[in-house]
Amino acid sequence: MNTFIKFQFKSVLIFGIVLLTSLAGCKRDLEELTPPDYPTDPNVFIDGFSANLIYAAFGGSNPKAFQVDKEVTYNNSAASMRFEVPAVNDPVGAYAGGSFFTTVGRNLSGYTALTFWAKASQSANIDIVGIGNDLGANKYQASVSGLAVNTNWKKYYIPIPDPSKFAAERGMFFYSEGAESGNGYTFWIDEVKFEELGTIAHAQPAILLGQKDTINSFAGITTQIGGLSSVFNLPNGVNQTVDLVASYFEFFSSNEEIATVNSTGVVSVIGGPGTAVITAKMGGKEAKGSLTIITGEPFQTAPVPTNNPNDVISLFSEAFPNVPVDYYNGYWAPFQTTLSEDFTVGGDNILSYTNFNFVGVQFSDPIIDATTMTHLRLDLFFPNDIAPGTQFKVKLVDFGANGVYDGGDDTNHTITFSSPTINTQNWISLDIPLANFTGLASRAHLGQLIFEGTNVSNFYADNIYFRR
Length: 468
Hints:
single chain, mainly beta, Jelly Rolls, Immunoglobulin-like, 3 domains, 7-stranded antiparallel beta sheet, 1 helix, 3% helix, globular
């Protein structure tokens, strides 16, 4: 995704005043200086771009997906915003997505929602539409997922979770949408503006999707609070869920000797044994959901491998030199929820995966020739209780002779583990014969190792390598 330099109007103003007063030979207390008055213009796109508005496509999207349309408009307006969603495997771009942001912040604290009219060439669900994305810090991003559109014009609302946060906002509107059932289509958006609507009410903030979660943890481990949202009652009577970022919340720990939580929702376990409960508020209102952290004895690191380094191709271990790895948590949107919260204990680096559903480790530059190796070895630690039906899957992917992912000759195989092999509160060493990955046509072009779980919320991993 491209990044753009923020326009630091306040800094320029202060610098200019300081320079002038210095030249005049007098002093002035900087505390006397007041922030600039940001424009309160509520319009984003009304028959065209509003003042200082810029559009930038997201990385990997079709850069020409957005166009101004003067033919299909709402209520015979002069122009609308047209978005062409590409079909699957379109060489121009994998999806349509981008941000409309301003070069100068706007004071939108007097408004309660972004509103717009939309229609589409077919019934569809737009993946994400939102506000607060300026291709920078995106500090106050808020979004709606799965926005249902059809062939008729309809008015939509994106509530501002806390208008006081929008006193100098640059992110006016953003969207992201992929093909529907593999096919591309077109949707239009018109009359985009911020409004003060007294009929938006009953905000109900939530963390962790409103659930009361409990995890076992250890000193030195960090956890990101996710599942941040708030429900608002719209003027049309619909209860709309808005996905939020941590900046809207104030977080609290019931026992800071056990765990602390910072302003971005990162929980750091610092002591034990004991218990701490993490909660939050938004705009002074209690959020649904909490995280109870139970700490026990000090964390024990994984067993140290004793293999001969000459007989190992290591992806992740302090015991051996590691080959180049593209990433240990490639975020494969929109379905992946897994987050990385890696940590170090006693000089040993540990991979930590939270909010886990699946995660990929990719090593494509170069790919790995493991034809002389006999086993895949990895150490896993599951800190929480293992529920009935829990499964942990390990998939290997060979990129084929062309050495390229999804190049037409990829092969893969998945091996599934369950209880009692998968158990809690201790390191499990899996030493998997590569011969068991029977779906692989070859082991000469390995490029991915993928983990997938059922009823597994988080786990730690260490010592991931091929051996003979």
